[in-house]
């Protein structure tokens, strides 16, 4: 059962029932609100809608609203948060696995093991928690804390990039400097952006907000930034902090600027 079916029944003066209805309510806060307290809100909205004179413009709006609640996006939005989060994590793990199997960094065995694994853990946890905040929305009473967390998440890859050089034990770790700096940094940035793009699309299209707020966009971008750095950490052997900062760490910040300045944040997409 989808949102549109529930709203159609409320408009007809009926209260939906059944297992499919109950399963939908578990993952859809909007519909739970409509049917709570004996569907008081849903019945009042249905009553108000029935008293409004219909016309071509209203019918166009209704058709558009119904079309928005069907298809893949409606299915994604109706899934429980745990399912949407699991899909996001699995997607990143799939992309990471492809890179590890086909494009693993050539200095993998020479990179300090503890630092290598800690960075993998940091970026992986960053993907998880930032995606969780992007999918669940922002609580108003804790808005200032959420702003601080979003900015911190966007800045973590930058701080990680500026750590002292990990090693110079492989010739590839010394590349990407002087004349080769710009093309190598741009190449890694493009690779990170492409690798994280599927996650951005999934987080935007499975979000339940009618219009994604800039703060939610910041968490989605931060999650994409962590995903990009996770993949690039598995692939790129260059250990120069300047390369890591400009070629790796800026992916999340650029995603935030892109999401905040385009119309993909509207529910209609």
Task: Please characterize this protein's 3D structure.
The protein has 269 residues and is an all-alpha fold. It folds into two domains: 71 residues, no CATH class; 185 residues, no CATH class. The longest helix is centred in the last third of the chain and has 25 residues.
Which terms would index this structure?
269 residues, 72% helix
Topology:
Layout: H1 3-11, H2 19-27, H3 29-50, H4 56-68, H5 71-78, H6 81-102, H7 113-136, H8 143-161, H9 181-205, H10 214-235, H11 241-260
Helix pairs in contact: 1-3, 2-3, 6-7, 6-9, 6-10, 7-8, 7-10, 8-10, 8-11, 9-10, 9-11, 10-11
- Count of folded domains: 2
Q: Total helix count?
A: 11
Describe the biggest sheet? none
Shape summary: elongated
Spans of at least 5 consecutive residues with low confidence? none
Distance between the termini: 23 Å
Give the percentage of residues in beta strands: under 5%
SSE pattern, N- to C-terminal: HHHHHHHHHHH
Give a summary of the structure in a few sentences.
The protein has 269 residues and is mainly alpha-helical. It is built from 11 helices and no strands.
């Amino acid at each position: 059962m989808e949102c549109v079916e529930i709203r159609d029944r409320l408009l007809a003066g009926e209260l939906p029932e059944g297992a499919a209805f109950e399963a939908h309510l578990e993952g859809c806060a909007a519909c739970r609100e409509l049917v709570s307290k004996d569907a008081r809100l849903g019945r009042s909205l249905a009553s108000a809608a029935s008293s409004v004179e219909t016309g071509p413009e209203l019918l166009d709006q209704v058709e558009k609203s119904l079309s928005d609640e069907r298809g893949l996006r409606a299915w994604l939005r109706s899934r429980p948060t745990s399912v949407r989060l699991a899909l996001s994590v699995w997607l990143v793990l799939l992309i990471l696995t492809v890179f590890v199997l086909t494009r693993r960094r050539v200095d993998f065995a020479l990179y300090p093991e503890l630092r290598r694994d800690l960075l993998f853990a940091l970026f992986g946890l960053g993907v998880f928690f930032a995606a969780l905040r992007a999918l669940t929305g922002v609580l108003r009473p804790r808005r200032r804390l959420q702003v601080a967390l979003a900015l911190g998440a966007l800045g973590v890859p930058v701080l990680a990039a500026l750590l002292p050089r990990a090693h110079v034990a492989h010739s590839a770790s010394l590349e990407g400097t002087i004349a080769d700096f710009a093309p190598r940094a741009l190449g890694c940035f493009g690779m990170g952006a492409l690798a994280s793009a599927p996650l951005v699309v999934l987080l935007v299209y499975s979000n339940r907000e009618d219009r994604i707020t800039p703060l939610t966009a910041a968490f989605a971008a931060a999650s994409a930034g962590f995903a990009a750095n996770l993949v690039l950490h598995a692939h790129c052997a260059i250990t120069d902090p300047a390369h890591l900062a400009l070629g790796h760490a800026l992916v999340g910040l650029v995603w935030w600027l892109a999401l905040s300045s385009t119309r993909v944040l509207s529910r209609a997409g």
